[in-house]
Amino acid sequence: MITKTNPRIMYTEIYMILTAIFIIYFLNSCKKNSTTPDNGIKNSTPYLVDIGSAMEHVSSYNMSDLVERVEYIRLETSPDCLLKKVDKIMLSDSFMFISDFECIYKFDRKGKFISKIGRQGRGPGEYLNVLHFCIDDRQKLIYTLDLIDKFHVFSFNGNYVRSFRMKYPSFNFFTTDSAKLACNVPNTPKEPSSCDLSLYIMDKNGEIVKTFKNYHKRTNNFAIVKSPLYKFENTIRFKEHGVDTLYSLINNKLVPYAIFNIGNLAMEPDPVWNPQTDFGDANQKYRIKELGETKDLILIGLIQGMYSDSTINFVYDKKKGNTFKLDHGKFTNDLGGLPFWPKLGYYHDDRVLIDFTYAYDFKNQALAADHINNDQIKQIASIINENSNPIIIIGYLK
Fold first, then answer.
1. What is the pLDDT of residues 73-93, one digit of tens each?
2. Is the pTM of this model over 0.90?
3. Degrees (nearest 5) of the Cα angle 33, 239, 251?
4. What are 343-356's pLDDT values in tens digits?
């Protein structure tokens, strides 16, 4: 016996089945992309980092969940290597290169001073100062930049290689994975031709390869000299002030990597300043000053107001998709050492997080903390004095 099926019922059932399949596929796609995008070449959805909602969400994060061990390194102190401050740190497998704005000092990984890189002056192979520097570990080269927009290149041994001038000013740059330099242009009002640029790529002889327009230039009397720029897994990440997106530089294109929401607490893209009222309401608002990253976390340094040396530190968990403010602004050092927050932008090495403490502060913290159970800290604290060089702190990531 043959039963006839009502076509309208049949089409309705097929429609319902296809709709259910689509909904399941859509939900699985959203679940996959909402917290675990592969934000490099394969990325399809940026991370969504909700800082505004996390302002009151204070939480702790143990160092033992982040690093295998922490090393405290006492830099040698002698008349030849007295650091006035720590401005930048770069690590190779064998050396630490540290600048204090006036010079670059080369130490081994145990803190023994080896030599200075270059020297101050105006002659060939000399620099006025060290505004910024980075290393090319593959080529064993050091790129230094001074205040007159001039690059100087040295070998790891300190031998002078060459110099060249940059076309546009920059206070911040990194080497890319394609043997080029990615440079952030200062975001200042009433600048000349560089005014409409945010980032540019040049080869290692100073020739411009690619430029990226800045759509949020200052028109009021306020300047952002450095925007967050860092390197992770051989990929440059960059975020301009006034833009909520952190980009990855991939194949000379800016690809969205993370989107930050600060809500109504976010600083305006172009705050107004005048001598009578200072920055007014802008001093009550927040902006992202620095960023960093590990395989599991995005590290965020927020500041309130226009200029501040101290940051309010947040962590975004890339796997879980949640954001929280760190208790006391640091990772909880449950490994028996001092509280820790890396100096973002001071260094580049995916295998470690780096902090430093000036000798006077280190000694006081070591003596005041009851919970410290670390022979290395106690030994260093017993040797150093207020005139000693800083202590470098390295956390080796899991």
1. 999 999 999 999 999 999 999
2. no
3. 70
4. 887 766 789 999 99
For 20, other C-beta atoms within 10 Å of its C-beta total: 10
Residues 102 and 120 sit within 8 Å (Cβ to Cβ): yes
Do residues 145 and 151 make contact, with C-beta atoms less than 8 angstroms apart?
yes
Neighbouring residues of 247: CB distance < 8 A, sequence distance ≥ 6: 237, 238, 239, 254, 255, 256, 257
273 token code pair: 């300043």
Q: Give the neighbor-by-neighbor strand order of the sheet with 352-357.
A: 67-74, 391-397, 352-357
CA angle, corner 344, sides to 343 and 348, nearest 5? 100
The strands making up 197-203's β-sheet, listed across from edge to edge, are: 172-175, 180-184, 197-203, 208-213
Contacts of 253 (CB under 8 A, 6+ apart): none
**Amino acid of residue 86:** V
Interacting residues of 263 by C-beta distance below 8 A, sequence separation 6+: 51, 52, 53
The pLDDT of residue 26 is above 90: no
Scanning the structure block, which residue is given the tokens 């995005």? 298
DSSP summary character for residue 205:
T
- Asked if pLDDT for residue 25 goes beyond 60, the answer is no
> How many other CB atoms are found less than 10 A from the CB of residue 322?
16
**Tokens representing residue 358 in the block:** 């000036």
- 214 vs 192, 209, 243, 261, 269, CA distance in Å? 13, 17, 10, 20, 12
Q: Write the CA distances from 378 to 74, 211, 214, 366, integer angstroms.
A: 12, 50, 50, 7
Q: How far is CA 55 from CA 60, 63, 208, 286, 332, in A?
A: 14, 22, 41, 11, 19
- What was the pLDDT predicted at 368? 77
